[in-house]
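Re: the 396-residue chain
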Amino acid sequence: MNHYQRMINTIAGEYTDRIPWAPRMDLWYIANRSRGTLPSEFVRLNTVEISELLDVACHAVRADYTLPGARDLSLRGLGMDNHPDYPFRIELKGLPVKFSDDGVDMKTLISTSKGEIFTHLHRNPDMTKAGISIPFVKSYAIENPDDIQALMRVFQHLEVIPNPEGYADFHKRIGQQGVAVASGPIAASPMHLILHELMPMDRFFYTYADNRNILCQLASSMEEFFHKLLDVLVSSDAEVVFWGGNYDQDLTWPTFFQKEITPWLSKVSERLHSVGKYLLTHTDGENKALMPYYKDCGFDVAESVCPAPMTQCSLKEIRHGMGENITVWGGIPSVALLEGSMDEAEFDDYLDKMFSEIGSGRRLILGVSDNVPPDAKLKRFKKIKEQIEDFGSVSN
């Protein structure tokens, strides 16, 4: 079997000749390229070529972020970006926009009849060298209550333009080396987007508790945009679609998750399942208190699952909590690849224990949560592959 077949069969709960192993390499690559410490054999490779060199499946979720200059971050202050690999492009139509990027600071000013929306993002070479790919927010879209009416206007002018050719190129590039997971929004719902991207979290918590109606009005005005995204994804050629991520039991606490996120994930899963597609969502935070709600969401893949010692639950506990119908993608915490966090003996013990607890191995794609870190010792990949080979085939 090739990597694509193993991953698709795993998501479907069918036989594979071995457990798929698909570590996410883009931040490791970007950081080491920026530092000048990239091993010579990796220079000028894309994610597919990196995975071929490492003899692993390609982690191809949303896009290939190793491609220099491909990502358009002019709307990142609204929680969205554009990339040639996405099955859509988001454009702001009919409103004056000023965008500047001097290589360090990105500033966007949008003028509406209800006022201006200004966002200021910051990144510098030290961030890139540390593997940080998302800019730091200096000024959020919502800095005071008056911004909400203006932001409603902005979302009325956002257009989702299908990009089937771009996604087709991405799909072809990934080929049999992995599954080209089509990008959807990072936030699973309008309210999740407000929390995660549009205003400081502490201010969101106070507003959500004391003046929720105004946030609900904004969320309602954003729904049409989310439906446009979903329509494009449903009509795409993707087998697996990414929708939402960055859940955590403290930040997206259980009652919030059940009220504001579960209905959207359920809606998305129903639409995708109706046309034979799978739903993947990025569950990279502390999942313990959220797992009882995941089964009601209908998603097929919990990607970037991070176990102990970085979170409270072992991989065994996470797989049990997710249930037998959700494929877990992850399971190896990033610290396990760092000699300063685990020496060789501790790493060997960790792997032995993990593999002894995964049962049949059904619905498991091994990966690194959330990313292979810049200082990872890639020689440890060999031990992971040896354990996979020793484990053998996986039956349905």
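The chain has a mean pLDDT of 96.
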